[in-house]
């Protein structure tokens, strides 16, 4: 059951959606569009949920400010599956020459809709999966995600080795990663 609520807090009025579920723990999040969602156990009283929002109001306002500072990017129009796959394959072709000298074998490319990530690497199986929604993002962002996944064949985490390789091969990767946050609404479409 969802309920839209308005609470006066020390940081000002905050509107949030209270979602009661069969969960044990509270889950407070700020969506990429700035919406505040609070998942709570079924029997949670509304005034207890409101109190949590009051207590976390500074964090909520800071999170919303960070999100509003991320520029919203222009989208390519929706395209057929074949066109999306072609755009992603082109990105992989553009950045693969950067990773090939490091011993990365050309991976198989798969595409699917994902709700929480732009891509993932299956290094043991020799393939990467890129989010179909990425095909609507600018070319430089598709290139960033493709290279990110290729580097996971060498470094399976996001530790210093991974970051060092990214720095060497795509010095502006952090800017691109930040810019990609402006397209987060595509993950929910």
Radius of gyration: 20 Å
Let me know the largest β-sheet: 4 strands, mixed
How far is it from the N-terminal to the C-terminal residue, by CA? 22 Å
- The class by helix and strand makeup works out as alpha/beta
Order of helices and strands: EEEEHHHEEEHHH
Unreliable runs, pLDDT <50, ≥5 residues? none
Order of strands across the main sheet: 1-2-4-3
What integer is the average pLDDT?
A: 91
Characterize the overall form.
elongated
**Beta strand %:** 15-25%
- Number of separate helices: 6
Quick description:
With about 190 residues, the protein is an alpha/beta fold. It has six helices and seven strands.
Task: Describe this protein's structure.
The chain is α/β, with parallel strands linked by helices and 189 residues long. 39% of the residues lie in helices and 22% in strands. The protein is built from six helices and seven strands; from the N terminus they run E-E-E-E-H-H-H-E-E-E-H-H-H. A four-stranded mixed β-sheet has the order 1-2-4-3, covered by helices on one side. A three-stranded mixed β-sheet has the order 5-7-6, covered by helices on one side. Strand 6 and strand 7 form a beta hairpin. The chain is elongated and about 60 Å long. The mean pLDDT is 91.
What characteristics describe this protein?
189 residues; alpha/beta; 4-stranded mixed beta sheet; 3-stranded mixed beta sheet; 39% helix; 22% strand; elongated
Write the layout of secondary structure elements.
Layout (H helix, E strand, L loop, with lengths): L1 E8 L2 E10 L5 E4 L5 E6 L4 H10 L1 H13 L11 H19 L8 E5 L6 E4 L4 E5 L7 H13 L8 H10 L3 H8 L9
Parallel strand pairs: 2-4, 5-7
Antiparallel strand pairs: 1-2, 3-4, 6-7
Helix pairs in contact: 3-4, 4-6
